[in-house]
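Weekly structure sync, notes
Attendees: PL (lead), two postdocs, one rotation student
Agenda item 3: pending single-chain targets
PL asked that the sequence for the first pending target be pasted directly into the notes so everyone works from the same version. It is reproduced below exactly as submitted, 86 residues in total.
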Amino acid sequence: MKEAIRYTATWCGPCRTYAKYWDRVVETRNDWTFRVIDVDADPESAAKHKIMSIPTTVLIKDGEVVAKHVSVMTEKEINEKLDYWS
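Predicted structure, written out during the meeting:
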């Protein structure tokens, strides 16, 4: 199982920018499960993955965190990371 999690918050400007790239990727890929977690609504999940800044993307493959990226990524960059870990 492959899961991509985007940590975000409603008050975060860069998170809103990142959301448009993320959403395009989600629409075009079915080989990953995608989740969006608001750090204010789910602080336990954020603490579990040691989220210190947002936006942060965490990639999990077979139950293990394989990559963590802090900051906005473009659609191309997201796809490259997903392809690398596929």
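Discussion points:
- The CA atoms of residues 42 and 70 lie 18 Å apart.
- The mean pLDDT is 97.
Action: rotation student to compare against the earlier draft before next sync.
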